[in-house]
Amino acid sequence: MLRSMFSAISGLRGHQIMMDVIGNNIANVNTVGFKSGRVNFQDILSQTMRGATSANAGLGSINPAQIGLGMTVAGIDILHTQGNLQSTGKLTDMAIQGDGFFVLANGIQQYYTRDGAFDISLDGSLVNPASGLKVQGWQANSAGVVDTTKVPGDVLIPIGQRTTALPTSTASLRGNLDAGSANGATGTTTLTVFDSLGVSHSVKLTFTKTAANAWSWTAAGDPANPGTTTTSTGTVTFTTGGLVSATTGSLSVAFTNGATSPSLPTLDFSNMTQFSGASEPVAQTNGFTSGTLVTFGVGNGGEITGVYSNGQTQLLGQIAMASFLNPAGLLRAGQNTFQTSSASGVPSIGRPGQGNRGTVTTGALEMSNVDLATQFTGMITAQRGFQANGRVITTSDEMLQELVNLKR
């Protein structure tokens, strides 16, 4: 039997596999985060008809004579090139710019994906709604601190969760007191003090000039805000440069509404000045009332920041991202996910934007990296290669037929 027939058969098989890969690429041209495949061929066994000889007795060297016996598929590679980003405007949609993969888990095994079409499940966790796999990362503690040295876990975004109130502990005074005013002149401002229950109280602070570069202050509860009393007084002294050189007194606010009483905010007068001009003191305090989580945002580094109804923001968690020394060695696991293999190596998990991990873009998805022009060109090549190998089989058959006809 002619060797060319068996070589052509191997060519048919190889080009059929090439067509299978191209068909899968084209089928996933609109699959979010899909990475296209590529087939590589190599020749196989060659039959040596004559060995090579070195130069000898005035003759030059003689090259070997070999006949190839066909081809085989050397490998099917995954091309992890960047896909284009498509804006969606959805808060939970995320795309990776650069290398890396989102980490998903089902409680038993981890998966890796470039598909960032996420949503929030009923239990508040960030998930892939098509598979139910949960996005992995690190949860912040009550103070908004994330510890990325711990093992990643499910990322929770508890929409509607209520925060505790923060009572006022500091009050910063700034603004000017009129240096040219006469003794007895006054300037007033109002402080907003939050108690331990999150209830806001207005406290009026009155500055009265007592001497050159010296002012006294008195705090009084707002008559329109019953349940607040204070008897705090003190003094403020300025240098000729206008800066505070000494302060005395402390603020003590008592409540009768069941909150922790009294509240003892620290007063900071260091930003006040005394120059010629109107007396316009301004007060700013910390603390806030209780609020609920209404929305959130994700930064380029994968940090999730919650926005509460009381206007406060706090870090909720951190999305994890994995990178591999050889991402082409990952195994496709279906549902736009990959699994590790002995060729890919173990994942390096950390914050996005650090190491060789890319950054996160919210409100967008990464499109498939399939290039239709390249795929259609490859389709033509596969078709012609298959057709040519089929013609070799036909021609070999005609040659065998001619050999059989010699008997006639």
Give an overview of the whole structure:
The mean pLDDT is 90. The protein starts with a helix and ends with a helix. Strand 15 and strand 16 form a beta hairpin. The chain is 14% helix and 40% strand. Helix 1 packs antiparallel against helix 2. The chain is built from 2 helices and 31 strands. The protein has 3 domains: 3-49 and 66-80 and 369-405, no CATH class; 85-162 and 292-366, no CATH class; 170-285, Sandwich (Tick-borne Encephalitis virus Glycoprotein, domain 1). Strands 7, 8, 11, 12, 23, 24, 25, 26 and 29 form a 9-stranded antiparallel β-sheet that branches. The longest helix is centred in the last third of the chain and has 34 residues, at 372-405. It has helices spanning 3-27, 372-405; strands spanning 37-43, 46-50, 65-68, 71-78, 85-87, 94-97, 101-105, 110-113, 119-120, 126-127, 134-139, 153-154, 170-178, 186-194, 200-211, 214-221, 228-230, 233-238, 244-249, 253-255, 266-275, 280-285, 293-298, 303-308, 313-319, 321-323, 331-334, 337-339, 348-350, 359-362, 364-366. By secondary structure, the protein is mainly beta.
Short description:
This protein is mainly beta and 408 residues long. The protein is built from two helices and 31 strands.
Keywords summarizing the entry:
408 residues, mainly beta, Tick-borne Encephalitis virus Glycoprotein, domain 1, 3 domains, nine-stranded antiparallel β-sheet, 31 strands, 40% strand, elongated
